[in-house]
Design a protein that fits this description.
The strands form 2 sheets. The protein has a 9-stranded parallel sheet with strand order 8-7-4-3-2-1-11-10-9. Strands 5-6 form a two-stranded antiparallel ribbon. By secondary structure, it is an alpha/beta fold. It contains 10 helices and 11 strands.
């Protein structure tokens, strides 16, 4: 069924994928997962219910090639992992000095995922301010491939100083996507700056069966369809409102994260049904 939903989202537009953060979460046991499903089979099951998962563990820990190879072997064709970049890369005063940490992270074996490697999410602290020269130097350090596997980069900035045209132009110059964050306090920057779109939906609620209420779900699904078709939703705040990105089909990654986490897998599955309708 999941394959059919994906195929129905590809006609004359980019691929829309929705997922959640990780696949191991105790409240999902007995709800998303059957009571008797072994933990070692949770990724196998989850990857057949949603087409993508964002991995947070890579932010805190270093994994080895066999782990990435195992993840790839347990997931179906067409499934994609987004990996959060290691914290030693982004949690520093001077980003231009991150070269060694970037190389260590990229060389840890993530290329074992092959075609299942999706965007790399570089998340910055809420206190990290935009410094144009330093951020430019950081983006210069991000390669386009690792061991022959193409790399795509997404930037989650969480300080309001980034909501300026200079940051948008810088991200676009490097074909890096600015994460579109639906968050209670972080800035929402709706500018499209890459050949893909990365959205993190973080205002869900555990009381909603699908994480987001029906009206909000419909709104984000409509935006995803517009992005995938090469259009730009007109209802999001833009840091560079006079800029017009190229109208071309884009892959869209949407993750239900943070608030409403106990219902996040159901939200992702419901989202996929909406965009495929």
């Amino acid at each position: 069924m999941l394959r059919c939903l994906l195929e129905r989202c590809i006609v004359s537009r980019g691929i829309i994928r929705a997922g959640m953060g990780g696949w191991t979460f105790e409240p999902w046991e007995g709800t998303f997962y059957a009571d008797k499903l072994a933990k070692k089979r949770q990724l196998e099951y989850a990857s057949r219910q949603v087409p993508t998962i964002e991995v947070n563990g890579t932010y805190y820990s270093t994994f080895k090639p066999p782990t990435f190879a195992k993840w790839a072997s347990e997931t179906p064709e067409g499934f994609v992992f987004s990996l959060k970049g290691n914290r030693f890369v982004t949690n520093r005063k001077v980003l231009a000095t991150a070269g060694e940490s970037i190389a260590r992270f990229l060389g840890s074996g993530l290329s074992e995922l092959g075609e299942k490697l999706g965007p790399l999410l570089w998340q910055f602290a809420p206190t990290k301010k935009f410094e144009q020269d330093d951020f430019s130097a950081f983006l210069e350090l991000l390669p386009r491939q690792q061991d022959g596997v193409p790399l795509r980069h997404a930037l989650e900035v969480r300080h309001p100083s980034f909501a300026v045209p200079e940051f948008v132009e810088l991200a676009a110059r490097h074909d890096a996507a600015i994460v579109i964050a639906d968050h209670a306090s972080y800035p929402l920057i709706g500018d499209v700056t890459a050949d893909f779109v990365y959205a993190r939906l973080q205002t869900g609620n555990d009381d909603n069966p699908a994480c987001y209420d029906d009206a909000s779900m419909a709104l984000w699904a409509d935006r995803a369809r517009q992005w995938a078709s090469g259009e730009n939703p007109g209802d999001l705040p833009m840091a560079a409102p006079g800029r017009s990105p190229a109208s071309l089909p884009r892959d869209v990654f949407v993750y239900f994260i943070r608030e409403g986490k106990s219902r996040a897998p159901f939200g992702a599955a419901a989202f996929m049904k909406r965009v495929a309708a």
